[in-house]
Design brief:
Number of domains: 1
Largest sheet: 6 strands, mixed
Number of strands: 9
Structural class: alpha/beta
CATH architecture: Alpha-Beta Complex
Strand content: 5-15%
Radius of gyration: 18 Å
Length: 266
Amino acid sequence: MGHLAVHIELAMTNDVLIHTEAGVMTLTLNRVDKKNSISVAMYSAMADALAQAATDASTRVAVFQGHETIFSAGNDIGDFLNKPPAGMDSPVFRFLHAIASFPKPLLAAVCGPAVGIGTTLLFHCDLVYAGDNAAFSMPFVNLGLCPEAASSLLVPQMLGYHRAAEALLLGEPFMAEAALEVGLVNRVLPPLEANNYAQQQARKLAAKPLSSLIETKSLMKKNQTTQVLQVMAEEGASFGRMLTEPAAKEAFTAFMERRKPDFSQL
């Protein structure tokens, strides 16, 4: 039934392509006309695929990739407002839980803009390869919201507090070389080479003993997974509350009206 479930999801949305070959499952964001913004249906398809891959012994590695010009513009704003996440069983939280608890190697190839979840999901990946055109940003504050995907925990851990404050409070983009410097990405490549390079690395991993990969990742993560899931739940509660408050309403209204938001009274 696991295989069937994934194919049913894919029949519902071609906006994310899920393909498994030689032990490597590749999840390709395939909505370039919408800047690979992620809809509820896409979250659901990816969560289902990762859940299946976690327990399927024939899948040894998972890889996220986008287009050489765009990784993801983050949440599909219209879809997100029409179907806001309702509890931890919602597709977005199922996806976040899946990436945080995925027991096997998780890779990403990132080219062009990676906004919001497009950046925060990378903190859960084991290896990240970036095109030299990659631009990472987490503009939650600019939308009247707060961090998600345990980024309030993981970003300061990796970037250090002051760089994290710059990324999360100002919400300004940082480029591939800066991401390489702080350890968010493993290597910077020409955009047309990034996806292929990630696939090469994934195939190397798929040839290794799966039990050793799982045990090594588990030991490196130690007890952090429990903390990450707890922080995700705390962020999720704040995020859901803030979605209904005036600052977010002003930010999203301004976004839809293509104007600059006015937070002077908020």
